[in-house]
Amino acid sequence: MRVLGIETSCDETGVAVYDTDRGLLAHALYSQIALHAEYGGVVPELASRDHVRKLLPLVRQTLAEAGLAASDLDGVAYTAGPGLVGALMVGAAAGRALAWALEVPAVGVHHMEGHLLAPLLEDPSLRPPFVALLVSGGHTQLVEVDGIGAYRLLGETLDDAAGEAFDKTAKLMGLPYPGGPQLAALAETGRPGAFTFSRPMTDRPGLDFSFSGLKTQVLLAWQQSDRSEQTRADIARGFEDAVVETLAIKCRRALEQTGIHTLVVAGGVGANLRLRAMLQAMAEKRGGRVRFPRPAFCTDNGAMIAFAGALRLMAGQHEDAGVHVTPRWDM
Ligand code: KG4
Ligand code: ZN
Known about the structure:
The chain is of the alpha/beta class. It has helices spanning 33-37, 44-66, 85-102, 111-121, 162-172, 179-187, 212-223, 229-258, 273-285, 295-298, 302-314; strands at 2-7, 12-19, 23-31, 75-81, 106-110, 130-135, 140-147, 150-156, 262-266, 289-291. A hairpin with a 3-residue loop joins strand 2 (12-19) and strand 3 (23-31). The model has no long low-confidence stretch (mean pLDDT 95).
């Protein structure tokens, strides 16, 4: 089965074709970062309009790269939520229209399920059960995955998501949007230990997170500092170390609690190199393993939607005509 995947939940237009026999055939991504940069964040209306402009050219490009005609498709999957409602509507309307014209089934995919299953996309040896750390701009969750669709929430953030904490902290230190990757890059030249911030909620049992207090700590440190470039890098390093170590402590605890030996990491913050290194070291020490999608499949992309959609369509799930999106949607 060849499935076209469409992702338009936020500020990236992602398209891919996944073949259930041959794997990923092609994928393409258009990022709206430059469009939103001057506003310091995503402007929903501009995001929707840009998805309208870019989606069909990307579909054409992806099909050409896969060496396919539209009539070779057996199904269409699109992100149905959670996300920005207008942006979601663009992908849903286009996906449903294509499926209707091609007379193939269409399925709306949960964006976080896409992230959750992304590590399986390129590693067929990976099988449930595993513990997944989902760390994006909107979510921070630990999930026990016992099978496709069999998810148990182990813990989640009580306030800011990890990516959101990166973005907000970057902003208050004057870094341009999107802050997360910029702050991580700056931390590379920071000196470890020059600034130490707390590891929130690690001193008590449980698997929930809280990241909103960290940005206040950083703000105070930044306001009281000499505000030099080196200090900014040092603070970035201190912040990154605090988030990464907090995530690692909770991941270790989740593995211990469930008795599971495989950890997978998904979502945009999964692209963070220091997080990858620390989780790798933690897993090795415990005799377990950790798997990450390649960085491009950690952040939003069409491939994860094509893959999750293909699994759902193969299981016989699809929806009747009508365009439905769910901007707020628990997995
Ligand atoms: O999954 P994603 O692309 O979009 C959703 O939120 O669904 O995740 C984006 C988030 C942003 O908050 C971004 O700052 C963060 O992932 N991010 C990073 C890095 N790359 C992306 N955070 C820390 N280090 C990175 N290298
Ligand atoms: Zn995402």
